[in-house]
Please model this.
Amino acid sequence: MLGTKVKEILNEQINKEFYSAYLYLAMSAHLSDMGLYGFSRWCEIQSREEIDHGMILVEYLLKHKEKIDLKNISSPQMNFSSPLEIFEQIYNHEREITRSIDSIAVKSDEECDFATRNFIDWYLKEQIEEEDHTLRIISKLKAFGSEKSSLYLMDKELGQREYHQSFYQ
Ligand code: OFO
Model:
């Protein structure tokens, strides 16, 4: 049986993951409008991964015979000024998600819900990767992003990203 508070914050986390998917989709659409199709693809794939993250939480709750509470998803910001602004926002957003995952780990410990404490490790690792990838892109944008030819090459590189469905094992 899962902890009472843990169940609540897992349901809140489902909402945050689906909101993240919305946010990445908005960014992807904006980048596509700017003609940066590789950046756009990167964000679109991230949006799909966020849906997977939400679904893994749903499946986890269902496996434990717990109730799913699907809350409203807010509209994300739709307009941005530059790829650098977008990736800085992504980094800040992912830092907040990390804090939110950390608080699930803390709650699981407080409620002696060791199943969830173990489960949430997968998300903690995922956050380390996401923050790292985003910071690398920000560093490159800061170093070369003002040159059109470099931006073109970065766009090509980010466009190579492939979608792999995320699974919790
Ligand atoms: Fe952006 O990561 Fe989900 O959890």
